[in-house]
């Protein structure tokens, strides 16, 4: 039990560090539209709450406290956050649909009401679905509906990508273009394509974790032993935590200004440590040379 527990602790620490650094980059290096930064910030807050809740629940399972009130409370929080995180991919897709609709001036105007309405909608839906989750006798329909919604969002994301590639060809081929595109429109088309490619990679990478989490969560509908259900709950927690960490890493890898900032930051930190080491070496050498010289002079004088 020591090795798995130690591995879980290391992974939790890595997840917290990954989340903290990506959120720092999100607000320190402004590279995306206001609405998508708000949604990503909400995603980071949701993942932090989810990470803390699932960490507590994992340790409760290891301590055999499945029947405690704390375990029940963490299960309620887990259920609410599960539906919210399942709706985050469709939320970003809806935001990109708005970016395509307001193509002419979306890059210049914030339109903060878009992100507010999207986040309010998925939060309310997540809360309502979590209440329904504890009322119905079988939750299979809810799990299947989440899978269907995310599949539809993935298909819509591919359609948005193709649409913006067509717009990009019109922007670059002025002879066949029906009208002239401004610099703001061209920038927005490029950002739409970059975001769609990032979402597509997120779906490709975390699909296996999403499938495993759905299957293990649906096991509550069957008459299984308490040990098997606890194992399923642990696998579910690990899959969702991995889902969040991998998503943050994919966001980082698909944001070039973040990588450039990180490279400069590490170079600055390494240069600072190099200067400190060089300064200490110089002081030590000076003290060693001149200290011995002063000592020999004092001895000779005596």
Poorly predicted regions: 289-302
Let me know the CATH homologous superfamily of the largest domain. Answer: Rhodopsin 7-helix transmembrane proteins
Q: Summarize the amount of helix as a percent range.
A: over 70%
Instruction: Report the sheet-strand fraction.
Output: under 5%
Radius of gyration: 26 Å
Report the CATH architecture of the largest domain.
Answer: Up-down Bundle
What is the overall pLDDT average? 77
Largest sheet: none
Secondary-structure-based class equals mainly alpha
Key terms:
mainly alpha, 2 domains, 302 residues, single chain, 84% helix, Rhopdopsin 7-helix transmembrane proteins, 9 helices
Walk me through what this model shows.
The protein is globular. It has nine helices and no strands. The longest helix is centred in the C-terminal third of the chain and has 46 residues. The C terminus is likely disordered. It has 302 residues and is an all-alpha fold. The protein folds into two domains: 253 residues, Up-down Bundle (Rhopdopsin 7-helix transmembrane proteins), CATH 1.20.1070; 48 residues. Keywords: Membrane, Transmembrane, Transmembrane helix. This is G_PROTEIN_RECEP_F1_2 domain-containing protein. InterPro entries: 7TM_GPCR_serpentine_rcpt_Sre, Serpentine_rcpt_epsilon. Belongs to the nematode receptor-like protein sre family.
